[in-house]
Amino acid sequence: MFINLSLDLDLQNSENQIRMYDVPPANSKPYQSGEWVGSTELGGSCNFKSVNVTPHCNGTHTECIGHIVNDKIFLPDILKYPVFFSLLITIPFHIFQHSNDFIIKENYQPKLENGDKVLIKKDIEETLKLYFSEFKNQKIEGLIIRTVPNDLSKKNRDYNLNPAPFFTNDAISFITDWGFKHLIVDIPSLDKAFDEGYLSNHHIFWNQKLKNYSLENSAFMDKTITELVFIPEEVQDGFYETFIGFPNWREEAVPSSVWIKK
Ligand SMILES: [Zn+2]
């Protein structure tokens, strides 16, 4: 049985949606042309709507390297075979503090600040070790990361009021070194929301130098990031067949649905 990890996106109800930055909620409204209106309730012959969506902030979406370079690179050209095996792991975040001898000896660009919630390499490394022997037998292209706590408020959280955890640069370098091609996370971004525009983790993942917006020869073109999924408690860590569904929009990021199966 397939399990859907995508967030519901209720276009009629902005209250039920994730919020990030000042991006408006996704919404739809009846199309109108002269006298004709695309709503049976308003006298039209059928329901016929226009939809407004900003994929990076309005729920589950998948993005490619086109997100961070000038070159026009589109998701459907990158993710041609959206079926692969993934490992699902669960890790906590840690709250960074300068003052004490903090356990985190990991870095982030820009520098970490007091109160930052960070997802660290050490936890990922220790968790992946548990599965190391099983990796030899199969090709695992995806890594799905569930963060804890994992309460239902993640489905419609206002991340402006409740800033999300993000990865240290060491964590993303580690994931990159393991060779995962598709990273699927339940947070709005690999990076801190207000990060002086570095998107340092995105750059590490795609092997692009910071603040360089021209595609580099050594960039990892075939990799994707999926953000804002929700992984129910009853779904256990382990290996899954994974499918990412999305409309063939020629865009760098596209709303998506992620399905997994044992
Ligand atoms: Zn995004």
Could you explain how this protein is built, in words?
The chain is an alpha/beta fold and 262 residues long. The chain has one domain (59-261): Putative cyclase (Glucose Oxidase, domain 1), CATH 3.50.30. It is 13% helix and 25% strand. It has a 9-stranded mixed sheet, covered by helices on one side. Helix 5 (200-206) links the parallel strand 12 and strand 13 (224-227). Helix 4 packs parallel to helix 5 (200-206). The longest helix is centred in the middle third of the chain and has 10 residues, at 169-178. It is globular. The chain starts with a strand and ends with a strand. Bound molecules: zinc ion (ZN). Zinc ion (ZN) binds next to strand 6. Residues 56, 61, 63, 189, 227, 253 line the site of zinc ion.
Summarize the model shown.
With 262 residues, the protein is an alpha/beta fold.
Kindly list the characteristics that best describe this protein:
Glucose Oxidase, domain 1, 262 residues, three-stranded mixed β-sheet, alpha/beta, binds zinc ion
Widest sheet: strand ordering: 1-16-14-7-10-12-13-6-15
What's the structural domain tally? 1
Name the poorly predicted regions.
none
- CATH homologous superfamily identity: Putative cyclase
**Main sheet: strands, sense, barrel:** 9 strands, mixed
What is the global morphology? globular
**Beta-strand level of the residues, as a percent range?**
15-25%
CATH topology: Glucose Oxidase, domain 1
What small-molecule ligands were found?
Answer: zinc ion
Helix content: 10-25%
CA radius of gyration:
19 Å
